[in-house]
Backbone:
């Protein structure tokens, strides 16, 4: 045993130690370009690229810009308990209520504009909790409470019941139809003002660095939920009751009383609460300003807005049409289009003059059968009809167009803060080389502090996957797996996993007639422990906003939620393995701690498997297929002979069996994780077949199966050694050959 004090349960962590964030010089260049660009680019970087260190540096600078201010209300900072914080926040909610009620009850066209403008914030739907549960934070009490509420926000395994789906349905019912938030034209379709894109970037940035900003996550979660701006605006019930979120806040505040960093953590949390109140006030004010601007528009101005929306797509097909002494195509091709001059010329054009039937040529052209049919929607067509009536009635023009400047003043302030934001803890560092496995494991677990490790992690994952293809031709000889390649059909996959289940996991089981001694059992458990300490980590990014649109995503997220106990500490697998180790008098530091680098209970040769698993998890988009296959392997491994033997050995020596029993139960092949893992693959490839055909299915399948094989590669160390030895023997002496053994790592 080593001399470390160990990591006590329950985990009362309220914040992780502050540490530098290390980025490559290239990341600094790329992040600067993003922050110097338009707010839409900032939003899209944070939402769309979830695998790069550039995004993490952008996130760090965004958080510095928003949280680096020292202007929190002293009255808020003086709050010492959850009731006082709640009183402060609910007072702010009451102040916002009249404005939000007025916006909800405004005219249909104005309400549509307001709801579209709010959508980039409304559809973030709790994203700040996306990865608060991860290897670096579990099994923290507060992280489990937050993750339990996140699971509820996600619909408790049924996404159609989740907050995001509910809000999208409500918007659809109100006639606001928008694409998914991750689509390239989402902000354009929403008509997002600069302030909207900037304010939406704050919670997105927080969702990228939640372990490093845990106090802020707690504050943002409470304030956003308790304020409930979107529920007030949409007229919906809260997905999470305020008192439930207040209970989490109260628990966090109680935990800070026992923490060495408690005072600083409370201030950070309360500062985040104050920031949310400010941001939501600013956005509500902007929506009110936007509504007032829209309501004040004359018919001429409304026509000008329609022209501005469609002019970039008009093309050259109007060459023969002249208006105000110019060809229409010349008007519309002008980057500096003078809308007032255009509308004035349009009013006087012959196309707008009433004919004998009482209508005008332009209105006829936009009806069915006309050359412009389908260009304008019903609301736009109605505006043109009203405008034509006003022209026919001789109403004077109103060409004094007031530009839409809603939110521009605070947007300029936040944009300036972003340009100036240079967090002192973001430091340049070259991509590390020559790391041993302990050092690499420490960095990938703490990837928020070591973003420059991502290229190394990617290379390590790819190398592991490439090595695993060895088993495509030799995998049938595995003792607990069969990674031999086969062409995919749903029936072939189910047949293979059933044969693995019966032939390799269940039927070979016989109770042990001799039980190893106590020390041997402890050593055996130590060979599994490192993998158990990161249980579920392969899937911890699967549910992130912006990449959770497939049924397979939701299904895999539900498995991860199960691994973490769905917020129940007693069922959390990381808690269970710590209990098992404690029953053997093994007391380890937390895997995120530097002290873990020197732990002496788990041998060096066991790190490869855990490193591979965490490296896969860092690339949920580009290695998605491989994660699905790996998930199948690890969930099936929880069944049968190996688990039953371990339970028998642990019980003989009065060690805790909770971890083994939990997996034997929850991973069951009837309806548990093992069966679900196969169903996830079928669901995903079903989507591929419908979208791209059978050839694409087989390409995607090969990648999935190499993910399964990469799990088997670490399990079947004897088979891998045998095959490698045979390959070495077959290579002439003049050639170099790999002779390293695969390690037994779980």
Residues:
């Amino acid at each position: 045993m080593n001399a470390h004090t160990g990591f006590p349960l329950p985990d009362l962590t309220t914040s992780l130690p502050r540490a530098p964030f290390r980025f490559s010089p290239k990341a600094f260049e790329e992040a600067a370009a993003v922050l110097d660009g338009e707010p839409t680019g900032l939003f899209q970087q944070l939402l769309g690229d979830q695998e790069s260190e550039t995004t993490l540096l952008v996130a760090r600078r965004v958080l510095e810009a928003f949280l680096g201010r020292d202007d929190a209300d002293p009255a808020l900072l003086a709050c010492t308990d959850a009731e006082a914080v709640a009183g402060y926040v609910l007072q702010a909610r009451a102040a916002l209520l009249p404005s939000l009620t007025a916006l909800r009850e405004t005219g249909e066209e104005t309400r549509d504009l307001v709801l579209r403008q709010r959508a980039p914030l409304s559809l973030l739907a709790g994203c700040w909790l996306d990865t608060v549960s991860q290897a670096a934070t579990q099994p923290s009490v507060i992280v489990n409470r937050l993750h339990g509420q996140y699971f509820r926000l996600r619909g408790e395994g049924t996404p159609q019941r989740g907050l995001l789906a509910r809000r999208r349905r409500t918007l659809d019912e109100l006639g606001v139809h928008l694409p998914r938030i991750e689509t390239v034209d989402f902000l354009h379709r929403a008509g997002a003002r600069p302030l909207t894109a900037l304010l939406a970037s704050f919670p997105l940035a927080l969702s990228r660095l939640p372990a490093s900003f845990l106090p802020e996550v707690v504050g943002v979660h409470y304030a956003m939920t308790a304020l409930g701006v979107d529920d007030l605006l949409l007229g919906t019930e809260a997905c999470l009751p305020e008192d439930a979120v207040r209970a989490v806040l109260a628990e966090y505040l109680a935990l800070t009383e026992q923490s060495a960093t408690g005072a600083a953590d409370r201030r950070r949390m309360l500062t985040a609460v104050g920031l949310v109140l400010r941001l939501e006030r600013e956005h509500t004010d902007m929506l009110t300003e936007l509504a007032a601007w829209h309501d004040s528009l004359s018919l001429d101005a409304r026509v000008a807005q329609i022209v501005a929306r469609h002019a970039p797509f008009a093309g050259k097909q109007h060459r023969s049409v002249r208006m105000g002494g110019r060809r229409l195509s010349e008007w519309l091709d002008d980057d500096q289009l003078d809308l007032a001059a255009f509308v004035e010329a349009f009013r006087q054009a012959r196309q707008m003059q009433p004919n004998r039937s009482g209508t005008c040529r332009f209105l006829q052209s936009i009806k069915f059968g006309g050359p412009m049919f389908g260009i304008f929607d019903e609301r736009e067509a109605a505006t043109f009809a009203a405008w034509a009536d006003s022209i026919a009635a001789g109403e004077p023009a109103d060409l004094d167009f007031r530009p839409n400047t809603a939110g521009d003043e605070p947007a300029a302030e936040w944009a300036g803060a972003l340009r100036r934001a240079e967090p002192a803890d973001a430091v340049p560092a070259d991509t590390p080389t020559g790391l041993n496995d302990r050092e690499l494991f420490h960095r990938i677990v703490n990837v928020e502090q070591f973003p420059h490790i991502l290229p190394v992690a990617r290379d390590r994952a790819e190398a592991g996957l490439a090595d695993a293809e060895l088993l495509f031709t030799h995998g049938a000889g595995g003792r607990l797996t069969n990674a031999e390649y086969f062409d995919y059909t749903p029936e072939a996959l189910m047949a293979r996993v059933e044969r693995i289940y019966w032939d390799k996991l269940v039927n070979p089981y016989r109770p042990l007639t001799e039980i190893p001694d106590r020390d041997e059992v402890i050593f055996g458990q130590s060979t599994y422990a490192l993998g158990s300490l990161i249980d579920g980590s392969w899937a911890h990014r699967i549910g992130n906003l912006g990449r959770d649109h497939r049924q397979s995503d939701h299904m895999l997220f539900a498995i991860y939620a199960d691994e973490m106990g769905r917020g129940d500490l007693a069922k959390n697998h990381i808690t269970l393995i710590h209990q098992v180790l404690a029953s053997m008098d093994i007391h380890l530091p937390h895997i995120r701690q530097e002290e873990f680098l020197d732990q002496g209970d788990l041998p060096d040769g066991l790190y490869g498997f855990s490193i591979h698993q965490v490296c896969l998890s860092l690339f949920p988009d580009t290695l998605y297929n491989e994660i699905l296959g790996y998930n199948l392997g690890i969930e099936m491994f929880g069944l049968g002979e190996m688990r039953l033997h371990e339970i028998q050995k642990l019980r003989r020596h009065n060690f805790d069996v909770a971890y083994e029993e939990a997996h034997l139960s929850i991973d069951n092949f009837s309806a548990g994780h093992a069966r679900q893992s196969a169903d996830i693959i079928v669901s995903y490839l079903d989507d591929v077949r419908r979208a791209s055909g059978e050839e694409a299915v087989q390409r995607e399948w090969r990648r999935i199966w190499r993910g399964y094989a990469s799990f088997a590669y670490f399990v079947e160390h004897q088979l891998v050694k045998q095959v490698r030895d045979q390959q070495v023997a077959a290579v002439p002496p003049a050639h170099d050959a790999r002779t390293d053994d695969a390690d037994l790592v779980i």
Observations:
- Residues 262-295 form the longest helix (34 residues).
- The chain is about 60% helix and 0% strand.
- The two ends are 20 Å apart (CA to CA).
